[in-house]
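Session log. Operator J.P. requested a structure for one protein chain; no other inputs attached. Running the standard single-chain path with token output.
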Amino acid sequence: MKKFTISGLLFIFILSLSVMSCSDDSDENVTPEPEPQPAGEAMLFAIDTARVKTVTLTGVTGTTIVDRMENLNSYISDMSISPDGTKIAYSNYQSVFTPSMAYTREVRVANIDGSGDHVIYTSSDSGVSIGAIRFCSDNKIFYVTQTSFPDLTRTLNVINADGTGNQVLQGQYDIVDVSDDRQYYLINDLATISISIIDVDGDNGAGGLYHNEGIGGESLSEGTFTNDGSKAVIPYKDGNEIKVRIIDMATKTSTTKTLVSGLGSGWISYHLEMGADSNRGVVTLAGSDFPKSKSYVFNLTTGDVSAPFENNDENIFDVYIY
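Structure written below.
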């Protein structure tokens, strides 16, 4: 789950190193939908520029389940795995500059093996950004579209997984995640290193503050709600450590756990995702001290963090867990 500007200067630099390839873009695959994944088995998926790949627990990329690499301006900025592990929703950005300028901005849904890939939202406006994609357990997808010119506007949407029934919701919140039941929005304030949680029923349906909390540290990255809605999980950097603030949604109390220690002094980016069991997660670190990104699988209950694995593709910065 991501906000809108993840594909900034870092992404442009990464794209310059990418190797262009093409793939068949067929929406008419009638392969039967896969069965839900076995309980207890961790499955990892990674965004590799404009592809989604499976990843082993040792960082080896395996099957490519989505390939949208049409040119050097192709990329996927966000993805969400359905709570039952059978589907994904993801963004697709395409730009073609010759012989004429053309843009595609899409939200797409596919089976977990890549079959049945289809569009549920599309725009040809180059100024449209897509963020905060969440595949909810009722088979609906939440997503936010944003434009910056001539004025900043945000539209909060929910749509069926088959692309029907798009509904525009109230508010223009700059959210990073929505709870599975779409009752709560999570908002990061990067300037004050704090978060706010909005209850959509507050203020007569316009949305009201449910909880806010200063996180501290030097920076924070996009947080997420667990699938069961019991917690909000927010990663942040504090000195030479990556920590996670865990907020209990019922009691509005929080605990802090350290995930990674011994970081260097160079620049760093980090991305956290939680698994379907609402307990296991993965955080991926990239930066000047990392020739390739590293991922750490962790357990919220026990506090255990696995030995990191180095992703074997230099373009992987976002790893997801089911």
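Operator note: The first strand starts at residue 44 and ends at 48.
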